[in-house]
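cron nightly-structures :: item 1 of 1
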Amino acid sequence: MLTLDQVKSKSSTRLIGLHPVVLAAATVLIERCYARGVHILITQGLRTIAEQDALYAQGRTKPGNIVTNAKGGTSYHNFGLAIDFALLLPDGKQVSWDLKRDGDGDKVADWTEVVQEAKALGFEWGGDFVSIKDAPHFQITFGMTTSQLRAGAKPSEIAMAKATAIIDRLKGEEEDMSRVAELEEQVKELSKVVTGLTNSKDVLKEQSLKQAAEIKELGTILLELTNTNPPVWSHEALKAFACTPSVLNGKPVIDTPGSATYSEARIITILYRLGLAAQQKGDK
């Protein structure tokens, strides 16, 4: 499996020349997608006027399909305010533009997960464009037009401060997501040990008590990580538990999926990833 540093290094050359705020957002995007099990490659960042004109000529005066309506100087790429991406495949060499690919097997298209994270960071998505859809494209414009940028105008300090605040907040949340992944691995290891103990009657009682104490301690650590609102990465798990009846009374395991604390969200996410919750359909 590729490490985060390996994934980030794949995009390093394409990040050169980006506006500092866009660079920060692109870096956090790579990190947050990695935490969700999706590896991405930044395929395009700053684009020169000449490169833009050549791209515009494609499908018009040069062979190929039309891929852009932006002439040189009319694309946010020309000012370091836009990036393009692709899904980086497990071998670390090939990429994919398959919008339906679910490489991490979480029943959510990898492309959709990347778009979710990008929009949360303040990026505008090319897939929302009206004229030509540009699914690999993200941009942060700071409320400026390309005409203003061509005239030499710069993003305001206020606009950059607002964008930076969003990025910093989600960067902190990324650290929480990493902690969830770490705790999830610990739970998996403990589960393996408990499973093995059930096959050994001689040590079952003593070791089960020991493992129960470790699990309790782990639960205490989880509860110490608190916040007031459930993060984006926990929504799917919260929804699943809200649709899963309890074995005790048949009612949903949780009834307020939109108001879980961070610690609750982390625990529920771990259990959900371990397959202990499933959404119900119909009367089942």
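cron nightly-structures :: done
The two ends are 38 Å apart (CA to CA).
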